[in-house]
Amino acid sequence: MHSGLNEFRSYKLESLSLDAAWLKQQTGQFALLFRLLLPMRRISSGRSVMTQRQKLVLPGGHNKLLLHSCCAPCSGEVMEALIASEIDFSIYFYNPNIHPQREYALRKDENIRFAEQQHGIPFIDADYGLDNWFARAQGMEDEPERGKRCTMCFDMRFERSALYAHEHGFPVISSSLGISRWKDMQQINDCGARAAAHYPGITYWDYDWRKQGGSARMIEISKRENFYQQEYCGCVYSLRDSNRWRKEQGRERIKICDKFYGQPEAQE
Ligand code: SF4
Asked: What is the disulfide pattern of this chain (predicted)?
């Protein structure tokens, strides 16, 4: 297809916002054509986003995936994309970085609710392991986000994911970590590939979940599901640094387990 047409369609998909009431009033082929071609999803702000899902295919012709999940907001869109693509997958929740424990419990419980209870997706709870995480983070306490501590943190999570995949017959691993615009995609992909390289039969899938409207749908789903809206990456050092930054901005400290998507004050 001509690239200009692709760009035009992409612009339409990403930016066109139609009021549902207006759309209902439309008769004739124009509105009908839009409805047939493009599935419309509601977001809680009252606007609508036009999206079109691409059918995803795992590398190597496989159809079984172990998806490491960091939290419900990041994995919600990833899960829906995989379900729409009829890919057989299980969620692997191993996030020993998250501090404090009640933050960890909330992030995990929401993930279980969405995966297991709403979609029937197997959820593997790899438990906590905060002591191990602190042991590996020693000497990196003052590293900035996206620095060496984060490489260690991603390595640790992917290493356990790859080991589990190896022991339980998953030929492909991936993670929801990369969908966040705050993360360095290359850093995450390097860690994932490094972990998978320990096992000849395992491939790391470096699919860019932000593409094809993924970032917008991530927010859309989070609002629809009223997911907890975490305000720092996860570890105690990211909490400290986020609070330092907020203080500089004259903002109040982060309130743990307090903010949810879909609330009037929630920001994208
Ligand atoms: S900032 Fe996030 S990715 Fe980096 S070490 Fe902390 S929890 Fe891990």
From this structure: 233-235
CB burial of residue 74 (10 Å; 0-12, 13-18, 19+): buried
The first and second tokens of residue 137, run together, are 């983070």
The whole model's pTM is what?
0.80
Q: Please give the distance, rounded to the nearest whole angstrom, from the Cα atom of residue 232 to the centre of ligand 1.
A: 9
Question: By the 8 A CB rule, do 161 and 92 touch?
Answer: yes
Residue 133's nearest CA partner among 95, 97, 94 is: 97
Q: Tell me the CATH number of domain 62-215, given options 1.20.1070.10, 3.40.50.620, 3.30.365.10, 3.40.366.10.
A: 3.40.50.620
260 by DSSP, 3-state: which?
strand
Helix, strand, coil in percent for the chain, rounding step 5 = 50, 10, 40
Of 53, 151, 174, nearest to 97 by C-alpha is: 151
C-alpha span between 233 and 224 (Å, rounded): 22
Instruction: Look at the block and give the residue holding tokens 């990833």.
Output: 78
Tell me whether the omega of the peptide bond preceding residue 59 falls within 30 degrees of 0, making it cis: no
The per-residue pLDDT for range 37-83, each reduced to its tens digit, is 333 333 333 333 445 688 999 999 999 999 999 999 999 999 999 99
Shortest CA distance to 54 belongs to which of 115, 10, 119, 109?
A: 10
The domain limits of the chain are 3-50, 62-215
Give the residue, out of 148, 149, 243, with the most ligand 1 atoms within 8 A of its beta carbon, to mutate for a pocket test: 149
71 is in an annotated binding site: yes
How far apart CA 109 and CA 118 sit, in angstroms, is 12
